[in-house]
Every structure is written in structure tokens, then in C-alpha cells.
Design goal:
Elements (H helix, E strand, L loop, with lengths): L2 E10 L9 E11 L4 E5 L6 H9 L6 E6 L2 E2 L10 E4 L11 H10 L9 H14 L15 H13 L5 E5 L7 H18 L2 E6 L2 H7 L2 E6 L2 E6 L1 H6 L4 H6 L6 E8 L2 E4 L2 E5 L6 E7 L4 E3 L5 E10 L3 E7 L8 E6 L10 E6 L4 E5 L5 E2 L13
Parallel strand pairs: 3-8, 3-9, 6-7, 7-8
Antiparallel strand pairs: 1-2, 1-4, 4-5, 9-10, 11-12, 11-14, 12-13, 14-20, 15-19, 16-17, 16-19, 17-18, 20-21
Helix pairs in contact: 2-3, 2-4, 3-4
The chain binds adenosine-5'-triphosphate.
Length: about 375
């Protein structure tokens, strides 16, 4: 089921006369392709949850429309939309067993949708098997781990056979190991069911690893939509470039002069067709090549060994980050006696941005913005 958002907007009015209204979501336009997992990503307060709640019907849009397939569901009550919703805090009924929790939504089916007891049980056991909790059906929630409780919550959302599955920070309450495991599980379950899914998170690594498509938001405005790798490789502005990637992108003050990019005094790269101007320069950690004859000179702090790679930590007066992190292959023998470390750069890992608007300035080597192609 494709989900279409048309200029979807939510404005919360001010609570006081002098206060300001909050534009939580501003003209969100997007067609979520059928069967895809979309990650809504952005810092706290950017409008992710509000978008999700408008899709499920818990929040009424101020303007704009929502379609499930060809159906306009904008004014439809949540219970008629056919959505499954999973929250961060599981929200299981503590006095019910796992089985009763999963069966609960089916007991509210009315009229032609009503199921017999055996049909309900069959469905409950099928989804329990899918999320691998069928052995735990007689336990109460407090007898389960966090990860198991989240699986029950997912089973309870899936048992209704929703047209769209909505997940609001479903992994936040899990420890690091369980997060990793559960996110792989969610991906598997989504693949197996083929249900169009929207997943909200502020964790870029989580969104990148799980999503077919990511939507990066800031202050209610969509910044970029695309496949995770395309958005990482081809950010449209400094915000997106900084938001994606661990370790984060290194940002420098730079100058374009006569078709060349300078960082401090260092003439680092050709930037053909770019007008002379001051710019921000973003260099991905993997964009550095350790090269004693390279044009970019930094002050060496230390070298962290990470097995396959080493992370060279350095500083520079032109850097906007307190330290610069360069990830290079561990085969490089780094001269740690030297106080200066020099690099050449991989041009496709270097982005330049307008200093006022922070929009990307494209030069010869970089492709046009990433698009979602099916
Ligand atoms: P988080 O990751 O912290 O949950 P979010 O990206 O999900 O953040 P939203 O919860 O969608 O953000 O909030 C977007 C903006 O709308 C914020 O500025 C928030 O303060 C505001 N907002 C959300 N709900 C309400 C409300 N009921 N009344 C007024 N303002 C609200």
C-alpha cells in the first residue's frame, strides 16, 4: 500500500496571547512506495512524531492530505485507517498474558470483520511465530526482557493485518546489544510481511541501517529524501552532511579562489566553475589519504588503532570541529614522531557549502542530488 503525503502541515497554536505558534510539520510532500521501510530522521523537535501521528490519525493535520493507496484518509478516525502503531514504551497490558495482549485488538473487530475464536488464535500464533515469541505466549509482560516485550508490541500491531505499520522510536528503551538485534528483526519482519512501514528515530545509524528510504527533517521541514547511501554520499546541505555519519563529517572554513579550494593556506583541490567565495568544507573521515606529500597539513594529536583501520586524530586552525578524524587503512605506517600530518583528499568525499545558506555548491566531480528511484 503506497502512502501519499500531500503538503502535509501541522501548526500548533500558541498557548498564550504573546506566544508563537509552532509549525511542527511544514508542507511535507512525499509518496512512500508500496512495501518500503521509510525512516523519518532528525533531531529532537523536528516533527517526526507529529508526522507519524498524522499518518495514523492521532493528530489532525492543519492542512494537506494523506492517502493510503487511492483512499483519502485525512479525516478518517484512527481505528478505520488500518494502521498498526508501535510505541517506544511497548504499552502492553501488564495483567494480560502475551497471548491475551496479542488477541486484544482482534476482539474489537465488529460486523463483517468479526473473527471466530479459532481464527483469532490462528492469527495470534502466526504473528507470534513471525516475531519469534510463540514459546512465550503464557507469560506476563513483566516476565519478559525489553526486547521480547517490544516483539509482543509488534505482534499486537501486526495481528490486525494493518495496511501501514508505524513505529515510533521502537528501540529507544533497549540496551545497545538488543537494539542491534531488534532492528535486524524489524527489518526481517518488514521484508517478510511486505507492509509499508514508517519508522521514526533520531539515531542516524539506526535509520541508515534499517531503512529503504530515509527522510531527513529539520524544524518541520524535509531536507532530503533518498536511499541511505545516496543521501550520505550526496547531501544537499551542511545540516544533512553533519547529521549522517559516524564519526561525523569534518567541517572546515575554506576559500574558493581561481577554481581552487583552499583550507587555510593549503591549496587542496580543483573546484572548476565555482565562483570565488568563502565556503564551508565538509570532508568525510574516509575522504583523507595519508600522504606525506599531500596538500592538506594538520597538527597530529594521536593515532587510534581500530583493527582494520586507524583513526588519525589531528587539529587545524581552519577546522570547525575541535578535532579532525581521518580514517585510513591500517596498512599505512603513520609517522607519529612528526607533529604535522599531511593528506591528499578523495574529491568525491569533499563537499563545499555556501557560507550563508549552507546549501551544497556542486563542482565538476559530484553528481546531481539523489532521487528515490523504484
Ligand atoms: P522527539 O524526537 O523529541 O520526539 P520529534 O521530531 O518527534 O521530536 P515532534 O514531537 O513532532 O518532534 O514535535 C515537533 C514540534 O512540535 C516541537 O517543537 C514540539 O515542541 C511541538 N509540539 C509537538 N506536540 C505539540 C503539542 N501538542 N502542542 C504544542 N506543540 C507541540
Amino acid at each position: 500500500m503506497k502512502v501519499v503525503l500531500q503538503e502535509l502541515t501541522k501548526i500548533f497554536p500558541s498557548r498564550t496571547k504573546k506566544g508563537q505558534e509552532v509549525v511542527a510539520v511544514n508542507k511535507f510532500d512525499f509518496e512512500i512506495p508500496d512495501g518500503k521501510l521509510v525512516g523519518l530522521l532528525g533531531p529532537s523537535g523536528c516533527g517526526k512524531s507529529t508526522t507519524l501521528y498524522m499518518i495514523c490519525g492521532l493528530q489532525k493535520p492543519s492542512s494537506g492530505k494523506i492517502f493510503f493507496g487511492e483512499d483519502d484518509v485525512t479525516s478518517l478516525a484512527p481505528e478505520y485507517r488500518g494502521v498498526g502503531l508501535v510505541f517506544q514504551n511497548y504499552a502492553l497490558y501488564p495483567h494480560m498474558t502475551v497471548k491475551q495482549n496479542i488477541l486484544f485488538p482482534l476482539q474489537n473487530f465488529k460486523g463483517a470483520d468479526r473473527l471466530s475464536k479459532s481464527e483469532m488464535l490462528e492469527r495470534a500464533y502466526n504473528v507470534a511465530k513471525l516475531v519469534q515469541i510463540d514459546e512465550l505466549m503464557d507469560r506476563k509482560p513483566n516476565e519478559l526482557s525489553g526486547g521480547q516485550q517490544q516483539r509482543v508490541a509488534i505482534a499486537r500491531a501486526l495481528v490486525k493485518m494493518p495496511r501501514v505499520l508505524l513505529l515510533d522510536e521502537p528501540l529507544s528503551n533497549l540496551d545497545a546489544r538488543l537494539r542491534l538485534q531488534t532492528r535486524e528483526e524489524i527489518k526481517r519482519i518488514q521484508r517478510e510481511t511486505g507492509i509499508t512501514t514508517v519508522f521514526v528515530t533520531h539515531d542516524q545509524e539506526e535509520a541508515m541501517s534499517i531503512s529503504d528510504i530515509i527522510v531527513v527533517m529539520k524544524l518541520g521541514i524535509v531536507q532530503q529524501i533518498g536511499k541511505p547511501q545516496s543521501v550520505y554520499d550526496d547531501p544537499v546541505n551542511l545540516f544533512v552532511a553533519k547529521f549522517l555519519g559516524t564519526p561525523p563529517i569534518n567541517v572546515f572554513q575554506g576559500t574558493v579562489k581561481g577554481g581552487r579550494l583552499y583550507i587555510g593556506e593549503d591549496n587542496v583541490l580543483a573546484t572548476p566553475d565555482v565562483e570565488d567565495q568563502e565556503v564551508f568544507v565538509g570532508i568525510r573521515p574516509e575522504g583523507f589519504i595519508y600522504d606525506k606529500n599531500g596538500p592538506l597539513h594538520c597538527n597530529l594529536r594521536n593515532v587510534e588503532v581500530m583493527g582494520r583501520d586507524v583513526s588519525i586524530v589531528s587539529t587545524s586552525d581552519a577546522s570547525l570541529n575541535p578535532t579532525i578524524r581521518s580514517i585510513v587503512d591500517a596498512d599505512n605506517k603513520i609517522d607519529t614522531e612528526n607533529q604535522t600530518v599531511s593528506f591528499s583528499l578523495k574529491p568525491h568525499k569533499v563537499f563545499i557549502f555556501n557560507k550563508e545558506t549552507e546549501e551544497r555548491i556542486r563542482f565538476g566531480n559530484t553528481a546531481s542530488p539523489a532521487e528515490v528511484k523504484e
